[in-house]
User: Which sequence fits this backbone?
């Protein structure tokens, strides 16, 4: 299948010191929010992006949506660089924000919010616009009379539906969902996830589903990327990742879910906080918190591992799997 | 704005008796200004002679040589004080209201653009110019500008502006920098919110984002500041007039009328000074109180009573 959107060792650094600090201390403090990520999303595919807060998953989503420009590397949409793409094509990439109340203008009612993208799709008579508006509201499961409501009259789940309707109005091919379910409660979360998954399958829209919530990602994603401190550490089809996690960080994340299950006998292996992205640890970025670090040896502290294939669709960034996908810790 | 919200704001406004008093006085002045020519008993330049054996200025409630009764007397040139006050109020109000509204519109325009394009070259240039204007303390800038342009009106190509417009421009230069800063300050946090990013992603052109998405959410602070500037504008206009930088004779203006009463300050009719003086004070009081009232309505977290404690 053809890649819809892909990144090629894309990097995004943020300067955290002012120009005066840089001048006086001659030091560039940079946050390496996204540090060399290569990601490929096919047409109609739902990719989950998982990681702790501050690991750079939102920045990666914004890079893909074109909201921020890469410091290095490139984002390509249908083979063309996102930086030089025309505005018509750019509209095919949309973003669903984390906080729907923030993403809708409090001054406008739903009709005004949806009318603009509808009109943007070409000239339409007034009745056609209304018809399209109602069909969009229907698509996201809202009754037609919601068109006259303002954002303060809607609940979190309803707001996220309106926000989704707004992105759908532009008939996108790719939507970045930036933790769209983190601000809503449990039953609404399931509804939104179902809606997203249904619409994606129905219209063949690719999704990048960013979340720290593994159960949500497991529900919706075909393929999952695990990020740690700006780097992708493991990439695999959803089922395979959950059943056979290879990277110690992925294992620890899955253990964290299992911990809530009283039947589980596995112990928590993820300790401490993620290190500051201002000063990432030398070598493998995960080594200070890694349970397997002792077994692998000093190489973890000396240099960073590469993302290497275990099979055609399973990639992992760890010295546990030197060449052939064999776990050296288990071999020992 | 919907009905319920408007009702809440209106109740909050009329709940404060002082504000209502200020509003009524301001409205009264507005009526006087609008219907000035109909209300004034005489023309503002019409001169009267004092009755036989009397000296100019004609005293309050006295009759002239030709038998007209002047309610508030005349100035030292024999012109009816009441008519000049009415026309003067008109001039002062036109200058202050138009200067504040022009400055506010300009500030909304500049502030939203610089706020949206924060950090750009355009932002830097505009804000440094504004910093330069801000180095002059308040009314001094207006004094300098009127003194430089003259009180006869400015020549722009073939057009010569009216003298009033000179003062309006000078006051616009004085008020705009502060208002622009306020507008820019309230625009910047809004410009980084998700609904603006969503509009950008939809391919909305920047002028549409600023005009329809951004600016309506950033107006409260600048409107509050503008209403408090109305009182200051009346004060500044009268101040310029008092310093001899008002519109040229025979055009009346409250500050000019006040300055003319100085002439007989040490004479028998020293209390003449209170007539224009009291008018200016009342006008400034009304606008200041009204401005505070609007501030309390739009920004309920800021209240003078609470702030004073």
Assistant:
């Amino acid at each position: 299948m053809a890649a819809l959107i892909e990144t090629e060792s894309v990097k995004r650094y943020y300067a955290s010191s002012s120009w005066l600090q840089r001048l006086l201390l001659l030091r560039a403090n940079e946050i390496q929010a996204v540090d060399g990520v290569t990601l490929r999303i096919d047409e109609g595919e739902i990719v989950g992006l998982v990681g702790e807060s501050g690991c750079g998953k939102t920045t990666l989503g914004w890079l893909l949506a074109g909201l921020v420009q890469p410091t290095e590397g490139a984002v390509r949409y249908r083979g063309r660089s996102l930086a030089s793409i025309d505005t018509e094509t750019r509209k095919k990439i949309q973003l669903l924000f984390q906080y729907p109340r923030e993403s809708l203008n409090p001054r406008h009612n739903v009709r005004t919010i949806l009318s603009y993208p509808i009109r943007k799709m070409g000239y339409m008579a007034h009745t056609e616009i209304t018809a399209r508006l109602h069909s969009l509201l229907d698509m996201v499961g809202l009754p037609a009379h919601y068109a006259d409501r303002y954002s303060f009259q809607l609940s979190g789940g309803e707001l996220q539906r309106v926000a989704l309707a707004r992105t759908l109005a532009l008939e996108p091919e790719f939507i970045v969902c930036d933790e769209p379910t983190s601000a809503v409660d449990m039953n609404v979360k399931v509804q939104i996830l179902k809606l997203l998954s249904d619409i994606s399958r129905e219209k063949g829209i690719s999704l990048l589903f960013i979340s720290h919530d593994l159960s949500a990602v497991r529900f919706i994603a075909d393929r999952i990327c695990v990020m740690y401190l700006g780097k992708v550490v493991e990439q695999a089809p959803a089922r395979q990742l959950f059943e056979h996690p290879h990277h110690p960080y992925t294992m620890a994340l899955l253990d964290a879910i299992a911990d809530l299950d009283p039947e589980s006998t596995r112990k928590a292996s993820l300790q401490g906080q993620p290190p500051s992205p201002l000063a990432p640890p030398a070598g493998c970025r995960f080594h200070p918190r890694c349970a397997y670090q002792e077994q692998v040896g000093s190489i973890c502290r000396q240099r960073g591992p590469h993302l290497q294939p275990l099979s055609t669709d399973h990639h992992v960034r760890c010295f546990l799997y030197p060449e052939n996908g064999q776990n050296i810790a288990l071999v020992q | 704005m919907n009905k319920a919200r408007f009702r809440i704001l209106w109740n909050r406004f009329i709940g404060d008796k002082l504000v209502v008093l200020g509003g009524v006085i301001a409205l009264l002045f507005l009526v006087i200004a609008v219907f000035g020519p109909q209300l004034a008993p005489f023309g503002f330049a019409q001169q009267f002679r004092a009755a036989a054996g009397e000296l100019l200025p004609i005293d309050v409630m006295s009759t002239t040589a030709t038998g007209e009764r002047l309610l508030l007397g005349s100035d030292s040139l024999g012109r009816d004080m009441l008519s000049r006050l009415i026309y003067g109020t008109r001039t002062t109000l036109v200058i202050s209201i138009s200067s504040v509204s022009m400055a506010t519109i300009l500030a909304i325009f500049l502030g939203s653009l610089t706020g949206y394009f924060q950090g750009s070259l355009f932002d830097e240039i505009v804000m440094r110019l504004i910093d330069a204007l801000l180095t002059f303390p308040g009314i001094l800038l207006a004094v300098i500008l009127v003194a430089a342009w003259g009180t006869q009106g400015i020549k722009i190509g073939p057009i010569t502006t009216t003298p009033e417009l000179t003062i309006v421009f000078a006051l616009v230069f004085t008020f705009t920098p502060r208002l622009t800063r306020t507008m820019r300050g309230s625009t910047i946090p809004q410009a980084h919110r998700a609904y603006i990013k969503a509009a950008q992603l939809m391919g909305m052109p920047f002028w549409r984002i600023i005009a329809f998405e951004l600016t309506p959410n950033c107006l409260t602070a600048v409107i509050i500041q503008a209403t408090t500037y109305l009182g200051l504008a009346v004060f500044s206009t009268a101040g310029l007039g008092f310093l001899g930088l008002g519109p040229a004779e025979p055009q009346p203006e409250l500050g000019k009328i006040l300055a003319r009463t100085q002439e007989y300050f040490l004479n028998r009719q020293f209390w003449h000074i209170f007539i224009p003086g009291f008018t200016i004070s009342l006008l400034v009081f009304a606008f200041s109180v009204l401005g505070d009232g609007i501030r309390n309505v739009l920004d309920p977290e800021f209240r003078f009573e609470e702030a004073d404690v």
